[in-house]
Amino acid sequence: MWTFGRKIAIGFAVSFLLLLGIGSVAYRSLDSLTRTSYAVAHTHVVLEHVAGLLGQLKDAETGQRGFVITGDEAYLEPYQAAVGAVARQVKELRELTADNPNQQRRIDAAQALVSAKLAELRRIIDLRRQAGLDAAVKAVLGGEGKRTMDEFRQVAEQMEREERDLLKQRADDVEATAAGARSTIVLGTLFCLLFVGAAGYVLTRSLTTQIAAAVQHVQRSSTELQSAANQQAAGARESSTSMTEITTTISELLATSRQIAESAQRVAGVAEQTASAAGAGAGTVQVAKESIAGIRQQVDLVVNHMLELGKKSQQIGAVLDIVSELAEQTNILAINATIEATGAGEAGKRFGVVADEIRKLADRVAGSTKEIRTLIEDVRGAVNTTVMATETGSKAVDAGARQFGDVAASFTRIAALVATTTEAAREIELSTKQQTTAVEQVNIAISNTAQATKETEASSGQTFQTASQLAGLSKELLRLVQPQVAA
Asked: Which residues contact 220 (CB under 8 A, 6 or more apart)?
């Protein structure tokens, strides 16, 4: 016959196996969902790169149109930025779709269209610079750029369509995996609940049947033991000696209680001193926190100055552009003057010498301008490095400020805890005094009890017999639960 413990062990083992199976299915489902979510994020990145590539071409075309209309080189900044970014965008897009041959073929076609579009934009820019507005407008109206952009948009739409199809497919996979996981978990949980309920019912019924008879014997024995206990309560002579020892122990406890009261008074004094020290520490931390706030303001001021210095360096660069252009124009004028002086013969020799000196001066100005530009670029780099270092320092200062705030809060909590400790020490002192009084009363009561214990000897035989019966019943109960131990 199976013991009650063995039945419980089997029930737990089956429940553990069921839960393990459900957990395994849930883990595989979560792992599949995780991989699918990574694939969805990758698809969104590809879509962003396709849209970014189209946006770069639009920016380049916008900058080119602005330059064609106005002739101002400043309008070419979007075009120049797009030229540098398009190649990188195409490379990243190719790497992201390396596992998709269809997308790789479309990227090849898109790359060819991008190159054709950039070449067409560059050609019209050069035409505007060399032949003027009318020629550039005529070239734009030729429609080559529009056709190229329309073809590129078609390729981009195909790429986006395929990526969105992949998104839909992955969404369907997620739904199928989630549905399977839900079904498995729900059905497995219901089965586990049914199994646990059935096992509990069987175990309860088995335990009730086996223990019912033993409980009846225990009730009869308990009645006899109660009767014997009522007789034994009259007194026991052997307890008198123990009562004497208890009286001695109570006297020692009384002395100890008085010592505890004195210690509690000293603890209360130390707690008050600790509270004062914690308050002083909190004030010091607050002052340090205010100092860190001042440092933070100074760091922000340094960042602002550095940013202003960067703006000034940009303004100096603009002025150098003007100086460089003047130097080039002066050089051209000097060359023209030299030619005219040569054509004038003897009368223009001295004028030619002057023109040659002006040309040399213009060359020196141009060279100095390049050196100054290099120095300005160095200054810009140093400013950027300083700003980054200052921002790092600012973050460190912020972290330090937060830490000091935490320390201040800790000091506040310490002060509250110390106050609580002080109050508790005072309560301990009062409780100890009350305990001393109670111990004295207990000492008197024990003396009275020692007299009563002498009357319990008469019923000790009957109590021993009843205890023997209870020992036999306990062996029967042990045999029901663990028969090997009882044997």
From this structure: none
